[in-house]
């Protein structure tokens, strides 16, 4: 059964189409990296701006090496430790990688996904696959085949690989080598933490420095708003009562801009009731359920708003969440229209 599904997907990719691809993080919308038509279709299907670069998915370290000018020891060590898995490495690209994929940057984001069907799909296609998350630009990422199928107006072929194991997108690490010295930066938080990467590098004796502040050129596509559900999500501090939440929301919603960085804000006239988003107390499980809960609650008939209680004791402050919660909190803050 799956054999046929993957073969059909390969056929579509080879005829310059796009397909839904399961990965362990979220579902991707994949095209061959050497198909301009396929790459353009990704942007069109997602309504994604061209300044937001795509991640290239590979099925072997050799394939990753074929995309870059230089494969430094640090990349080899991180690949051996974390691949296949939720780590994307940003390295200097070579001419194999089209500017459309990288938004004209000199660098390319590469990762080897852990899902067996993704690896099979890439291997059978024979070239790496560019794939952003399979959702409309700015919206909640999909963690099941059904999410992908319901996301776009036009029907899309999706390889059904079940529910995603991690539930949020990969960690993105930028790698720059200057005179044999390695500078690293976390460009997007994800399942793999900076501490895990740090211990791996220490164990292997790789001298390096972390850049704390990353500019917009190095981390494009890091919008203020992203992952947004179909109704507004509001984050409130623990202890706030229902009436207080509604009062503040109704006073502030109408003052929101209509659009932020190309993403339309949903602004109901007046909110009278809302659904509470409840996540597991364990960060891994919370990540796994986050996007499907945002979708499920946002699609309930009559729902006007979702609310999430930010418990400082557990999560830390908005500006500095505790490390284990930081990736989930990053997604929640970007998905939220308001923080009270
Ligand atoms: O887990 C994931 O990474 C998923 C699955 C499908 O692999 N993919 C994913 O793709 O999250 P997407 O398009 O939703 O997010 C890709 C982000 C871009 O928005 C950008 O921030 C960053 O990756 N990125 C890609 N290439 C980059 C580059 N050359 N330099 C800096 N950031 C880059
Ligand atoms: Mg995305």
Overall description:
With 340 residues, the chain is an alpha/beta fold. Helices cover 32% and strands 18% of the residues. The chain contains 12 helices and 15 strands. A 9-stranded mixed β-sheet has the order 1-2-6-3-5-4-7-8-9, sandwiched between helices. The chain has a 4-stranded parallel β-sheet with strand order 13-14-10-15, with helices on both faces. Strands 11-12 form a two-stranded antiparallel sheet. Helix 1 crosses helix 6. The radius of gyration is 20 Å and the shape is globular. It starts with a helix and ends with a strand. It binds threonylcarbamoyladenylate and magnesium ion (MG). Magnesium ion is lined by residues 132-133, 141.
The strand line-up of the biggest sheet is 1-2-6-3-5-4-7-8-9
Helix content: 25-40%
Bound molecules: threonylcarbamoyladenylate, magnesium ion
What value does the Rg take, in angstroms? Answer: 20 Å
Alpha plus pi helix count: 12
Spans of at least 5 consecutive residues with low confidence: none
Average pLDDT: 94
Outline: globular
> What is the distance, rounded to the nearest whole angstrom, between the alpha carbons of the first and last residues?
49 Å
Number of strands: 15
Strand content: 15-25%
The secondary-structure class comes to alpha/beta
The largest sheet, given as strand count, sense and whether it forms a barrel, is: 9 strands, mixed
Helix-strand topology string: HEEHEHHEHEHEHEEHEEHEEEHEHHE
């Amino acid at each position: 059964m799956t054999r046929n599904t993957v073969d059909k997907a390969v056929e579509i990719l080879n005829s310059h189409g796009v397909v839904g691809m399961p990965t362990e993080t979220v579902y991707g919308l994949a095209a061959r990296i050497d198909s301009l038509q396929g790459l353009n279709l990704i942007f069109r299907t997602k309504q994604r701006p061209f300044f937001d670069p795509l991640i290239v998915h590979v099925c072997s370290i050799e394939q990753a090496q074929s995309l870059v000018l230089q494969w430094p020891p640090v990349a080899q060590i991180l690949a051996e430790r974390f691949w296949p898995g939720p780590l994307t490495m940003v390295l200097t690209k070579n001419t194999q990688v089209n500017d459309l994929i990288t938004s004209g940057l000199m660098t390319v984001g590469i990762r080897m996904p852990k899902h067996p069907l993704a690896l099979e799909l890439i291997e059978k296609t024979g070239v790496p696959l560019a794939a952003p998350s399979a959702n409309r630009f700015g919206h909640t990422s999909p963690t099941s085949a059904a999410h992908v199928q319901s996301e776009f107006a036009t029907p899309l072929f999706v390889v059904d690989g079940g529910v995603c194991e991690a539930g949020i997108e990969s960690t993105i690490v930028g790698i720059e080598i200057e005179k044999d010295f390695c500078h690293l930066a976390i460009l997007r938080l994800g399942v793999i933490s900076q501490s895990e990467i740090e211990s791996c590098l220490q164990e292997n004796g790789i001298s390096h420095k972390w850049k704390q502040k990353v500019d917009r050129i190095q981390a494009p596509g890091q919008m203020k708003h992203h992952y947004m559900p179909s109704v507004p999500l509001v984050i409130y501090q623990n202890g706030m009562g229902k009436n207080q939440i509604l009062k503040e929301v109704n006073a502030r919603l109408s003052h929101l801009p209509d659009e932020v960085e190309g993403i339309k804000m949903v602004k109901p006239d007046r909110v009278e009731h809302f659904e509470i988003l409840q996540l597991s107390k364990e960060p891994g499980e919370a990540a796994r359920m986050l996007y499907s809960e945002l979708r499920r609650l946002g699609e309930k008939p009559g729902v006007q708003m979702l609310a999430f209680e930010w418990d400082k004791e557990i999560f830390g402050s908005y500006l500095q969440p505790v490390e284990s919660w930081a990736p989930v909190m990053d997604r929640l803050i970007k998905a939220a229209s308001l923080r009270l």
